[in-house]
Design a protein that fits this description.
Helix content of chain A: 25-40%
Order of helices and strands of chain A: HHEHHEEEEEHEEEHEHEEEHHHEHEH
GO molecular function (chains A, B): DNA-binding transcription factor activity
Oligomer: homodimer
CATH topology of the largest domain in chain A: Nucleotidyltransferase, domain 5
InterPro entries (chains A, B): ATPase_NBD, HTH_MarR-typ, ROK, WH-like_DNA-bd_sf, WH_DNA-bd_sf
Radius of gyration of chain A: 23 Å
Mean pLDDT of chain A: 86
Organism (chains A, B): Streptomyces tabacisoli
CATH class of the largest domain in chain A: Alpha Beta
Shape of chain A: globular
CATH architecture of the largest domain in chain A: 2-Layer Sandwich
Largest interface: A-B, 58 and 56 residues
Pfam family, one (chains A, B): MarR_2
Strand content of chain A: 15-25%
Domain HTH marR-type (chains A, B): 23-73
Chain lengths: 390, 390
């Protein structure tokens, strides 16, 4: 993995106002392409495109593509250029209660490295941050990268994240009011490169990008594990809510979610370090007696909260993720049967196949969105469009 | 109200591809303006703009504005043009269980006529449609207009409206599966001019346009009346849900909404034709003994469903509309107190001031959106933008 120029990340701002960003965007959309092709697509003149291509190549953003070996073109074939997805990297992080998951991706989203570390259950909030910093440094060093080679980091945390970036966590209580991006700013200078987000919000981004929700724009992602939580995508965009609290139905006693979470037990065998939901998922998969009944009762308990979400939003699709997604196919008919009497229409249900990497993969997507936004001069990777803008 | 050209509505399609639509859009954004001003704003040449202005004036879309009487300009002042908002009309309709409300508006949204008619409680579904057709004809005739002078009609109905335009109504049971737009198509040729929508969905559009939610983009509008229902606006757009069922929390027994609706009674005096909520609103306003307590118990019963919405979406603002909105200010502290223990944050609450015309006003907005969409070559007044489109 060659690293061309240590200051490359800082070129981003300068690029904004240049025509070169138009050429770059075209190449990121489709590579490789010839100068003529780019001139046609951008409406710029051939000499302008030639100059821009030279500039972009010098900066390490694009490179000449190999000439295809097949076919004998008459005369010398036109040079073709491609976007250098390896020109930069982003990191996706999932820091949960018990585990850190790290993913390193190229600018085209290809995952090039992954790591997983357990967190000692007795670790304090401060120790968890130090553990994350150390693991991140080590992870990047192992790939021959320094922190400033990373253009953006998307981090999922087990708690609500308000507009100010401060966490509200009932899971890691001493993370409440923590500004995690700021705490990592020494490692990744420029906090605008670090994006902290509620974990299940990243999970829904991942499902929409590369998971079960690729074809849907109105999606609820329900994580079924030791904690039950929900992330929403509406009209193809993450819906956080005013204070980052969208999807927090666990609060409402009438829906009984807290009782289900607290009261849940699995009487079968548990491996060391396994949660009750981990063990139940394993038991169902191995066909242990009674496991499916326990799962069914668990889903009956969860159904009113899922039904409230479905009735509130009428989504296209509900993706089931988290520990119990490992159960796979049996999940959907069981939950569907409980949702039937509680809803107008049972929505399409799908089980996540992203496994333990879902949240970190959403972190990668979030980080890539931030890079895209900076490349195109927008902020935070979101576009707004009002209903009445003619 | 002069009517220039009977075939004007059909000019819409032809306008799409013309530069004139750019000029028209500029004049709709700001009027009056000079040819120079329009040339500057559109980037078109003065002669081009002059030709377009002439064309648009001949079609009746724009007209020369009166020269301001104030100030003595040196020499002859430049001609100024304005958009003719009176060039076309839209109608907003609210057809509820007991009442039809009609609003006639110009293309700039100014309401120029209004009407209200009671519906006999024993009327069948078919009779209700006939009543609506007759009242609409009569209403337009009274304004010197024929149905084809109306460019679009937005109709609010007490039921869910699916993507196919078919109604699902528990309020007027024999409207179930009705395609109301099609049934009115003979009166308003071209069904694409008739837009049928759930009534509370129109209410939220109206609140966002001219009501309590003008400054908010994430809004839940809760109608508190004989029926309790909810409309959602997310990111400045109406959120209907996959099957038009968003906000239908009344279904979920755990939230107890149906019990509140069915069990609600007001022991005080009732005027003829008044619903229990009408009578309660009147009693609270006149300071009748015990009325505020009854209202408080009603709101306590509604609170879990409102809390579920708030937790699911975390909206900026909840607008309270419907019959009980007439109570005014006392409503918000009472509901707020019940929401406190059930939510993470009590959202901002506001009481609608649009009165009985809220739904019909939303119908006007919906109809204007459809006109805007056709003027700008889009469909159905909505724009989509994915999260990753650079």
């Amino acid at each position: 993995m060659a690293v061309h120029d240590r200051s490359r990340g800082h070129d981003l701002a300068a690029l904004r106002d240049l025509n070169s960003s138009v050429v770059l965007r075209e190449l990121r959309r489709e590579s490789p392409r010839t100068v003529s092709g780019l001139a046609g697509a951008t409406g710029l003149s051939r000499p302008t495109v030639e100059a821009l291509v030279e500039q972009l190549a010098a900066r390490g953003w694009i490179t000449e593509a190999a000439v295809p070996a097949t076919g004998r073109a008459p005369g010398r074939p036109a040079r073709r250029y491609r976007f250098r997805a390896e020109a930069g990297h982003v990191v996706g992080v999932d820091i949960g209660l018990k585990r850190i998951v790290l993913l390193l991706a190229r600018l085209d989203g290809e995952i090039v490295a992954r790591a997983r570390h357990d967190i000692p259950s007795e670790a304090t909030g401060a120790e968890r941050i130090e553990l994350l910093r150390g693991r991140l440094r080590h992870f990047l060093a192992g790939q021959g990268l320094a922190p400033h080679d990373v253009w953006s980091v998307g981090i999922g945390v087990p708690g609500m994240v308000g507009e100010t970036g401060r966490i509200r966590s009932v899971i890691v209580p001493d993370w409440t009011d923590l500004d995690l991006a700021r705490r990592l700013a020494d490692d990744f200078p420029g906090t605008d490169r670090i994006l902290v987000e509620n974990d299940v919000n990243l999970a829904v981004l991942a499902e929409h990008w590369r998971g079960a929700a690729r074809l849907a724009d109105d999606v609820a992602c329900v994580r079924l594990g030791p904690r039950i939580s929900c992330g929403l995508m509406i009209d193809g965009r993450l819906h956080r809510g005013r204070r980052g609290g969208a999807g927090e139905l666990g609060i409402l006693p009438q829906l009984g979610l807290e009782q289900v979470q607290k009261g849940f037990a699995w009487a079968g065998e548990r491996l060391p370090g396994e949660s009750a939901t981990d063990a139940l998922a394993r038991a169902v998969r191995s066909g242990e007696a009674g496991a499916l009944d326990v799962l069914d009762r668990f889903l009956a308990g969860v159904a009113p909260a899922v039904a409230a979400l479905v009735l509130a939003l009428d989504p296209e699709l509900v993706v089931l993720s988290g520990t119990l997604a490992r159960v796979g196919d049996p999940l959907t008919p069981l939950l569907s049967a409980h949702l039937g009497p509680l809803t107008l229409h049972v929505p399409q249900l799908a089980v996540s196949t992203l496994g333990r990497e879902g949240v970190a993969l959403g972190g990668v997507r979030r980080a890539l969105d931030a890079v895209e936004a900076r490349l195109s001069g927008r902020q935070h990777g979101t576009t707004r469009s009002g209903p009445h803008d003619a």
